[in-house]
TrEMBL record, chains A, B:
<keyword id="KW-0460">Magnesium</keyword>
<comment type="similarity">
    <text>Belongs to the ComB family.</text>
</comment>
<dbReference type="InterPro" id="IPR005238">
    <property type="entry name" value="ComB-like"/>
</dbReference>
<dbReference type="GO" id="GO:0000287">
    <property type="term" value="F:magnesium ion binding"/>
</dbReference>
<dbReference type="InterPro" id="IPR036702">
    <property type="entry name" value="ComB-like_sf"/>
</dbReference>
<dbReference type="GO" id="GO:0050532">
    <property type="term" value="F:2-phosphosulfolactate phosphatase activity"/>
</dbReference>
<dbReference type="GO" id="GO:0050545">
    <property type="term" value="F:sulfopyruvate decarboxylase activity"/>
</dbReference>
<dbReference type="Pfam" id="PF04029">
    <property type="entry name" value="2-ph_phosp"/>
</dbReference>
<keyword id="KW-0378">Hydrolase</keyword>
<protein>
    <recommendedName>
        <fullName>Probable 2-phosphosulfolactate phosphatase</fullName>
        <ecNumber>3.1.3.71</ecNumber>
    </recommendedName>
</protein>
Length: 235, 235
């Protein structure tokens, strides 16, 4: 039987042996929701990079560049970190370089040891679940969190994946059980469950309620972005 | 307004500024439940030490020594890590040196920066809450977890503390909200909520179901152990 586990923040990734695992990186608000949206709207590839400087280098080389820090766009870049910015037809068929406060770091941290790294969001939840079921590997859902700390929305997504796989996978560890229980408690009204979360308040201060509503929608897109070399592409 | 936050494992403690905080260390199965029980039964003081070697040194100097690793007693020591071992009248008025896999490390890690370090368990939940309310400091509940990972039972205790203080404290961070929500979902039947947790399974393999039942009882003892120098004593 395959195992599924959850890592609540990249700061705890060293506790997980991922040599036989597909890592599902999630950063619901908003990096992985942006990525999934971009691919759904025709982006060719996304290069996740850890630093703003590296992102600027790609911009000079002709990439469309998206850089976010502290939930806001970094000056001089082409795109901010709103999923609605990724619905732009100028992006169709193009390559994007992207750096965000939490999400891209989680991808770069996972790629060294994992069998595969894929990108998950509520927007492509079922597609991710279907993909994982068809693979022979264990699963680790890696929550990007916020600056090393756990956050609610990524934990809920992790719980949704665990809940969907619980009959076919061994759910061994407490973080996975905790995430699954949190998701079960939230599913009737996820916005309410999240209403006091730190990042919701952060985003609301920035006036981006519509991003929140959008990112909590399930299964809008039947696609799975996967890391090949340094680039995310569609499976 | 005072703040309350939760740290799900000592591996994330570096993200928390505890210079104005009382840290409540909890290790429900079973270090802090043992400590609370010991004090309730008349122990004079407990020295938490990080290593087995250090614990052996205290034993040579006449302390009663308790050493646990991987949920089992280390050979050559006087006490194991069962709360029932701390109900022994030979301990009355005596000093104990104690090392455990997770709990004592959390105490030694907190003491450098925190205003005060106290010991919490379900057994003294209300006493801890009353003590915190009477103090002017912020609160961080530090879950000992299991070898650097979060666990369910410590998270539930943290959530119980947050829930009890939520009207008088600012609950700002997602880990605190997550813990509180988990506690609320578990309170009707905590043993059921915990039934698949990793540590419950570990303890059941060792045949110590009665320890589990005992450690989940609330408010048996109206006492608060606090760290003074290197020793835990009663407040």
């Amino acid at each position: 039987m395959k195992n599924i586990d959850v890592c609540l923040t990249p700061d705890l990734l060293h506790h997980h042996n991922i040599n036989n695992s597909i890592v599902v990186v999630t950063d619901i608000f908003r990096a992985t929701s942006c990525m999934v949206t971009g691919f759904a709207y025709g982006v060719q590839s996304i290069i996740p990079v850890a630093s703003v400087e590296e992102c600027a280098e790609y911009q000079k080389r002709g990439y469309i560049a998206a850089a976010e820090r502290n939930a806001e766009k970094v000056e001089g870049f082409d795109l901010d970190n709103s999923p609605f910015s990724f619905m732009d037809e100028r992006l169709v068929g193009n390559k994007i370089a992207m750096t965000t406060t939490n999400g891209t770091l989680s991808i770069t941290k996972s790629k060294k040891n994992a069998v595969k790294v894929i990108v998950g969001a509520f927007l492509n939840l079922q597609a991710v679940v279907n993909y994982l079921k068809a693979q022979p590997y264990d699963v680790l859902v890696l929550c990007a969190g916020w600056k090393g700390r756990p956050n609610l929305e990524d934990t809920l997504f992790a719980g949704a994946v665990v809940e969907a796989l619980r009959d076919e996978y061994f759910v061994a560890e407490d973080a996975a059980i905790l995430a699954m229980r949190a998701y079960e408690a939230s599913r009737e009204n996820m916005p309410l469950y999240l209403s006091n979360s730190s990042h919701i308040r952060r985003l609301q201060r920035l006036g981006i309620n519509k991003d929140i509503t959008y990112c909590l929608q399930k299964d809008l897109y039947d696609i799975v972005p996967i890391l090949r070399g340094n680039e995310l592409v569609l499976v």
